[in-house]
Amino acid sequence: MTSREYAGWMEFYKLEPWGSEAEWLHTAQVLAMMANVNRDAKRRPQPYKAADFMPKFDRPARVPTAEELDKKVGAIFRAMKAGPGS
Length: 86
What we know:
The chain is mainly α.
């Protein structure tokens, strides 16, 4: 593929994106519409936007602190000790 052809594909993608990000945008638009149809305008005067429902792919994952991990592990062990149906 030449650099000219690659540049052409990049421009085409700007106009007609494809792939998972485009699919997420479509889903986010539907979710925003559903949220706005059911929105209480007094409690939330600003309408929802598709961006409110888009996953943050480029956001780095937050590393949990040692204290947070201890709490999670403790909760797991307590649940295991309690057994099913407890």
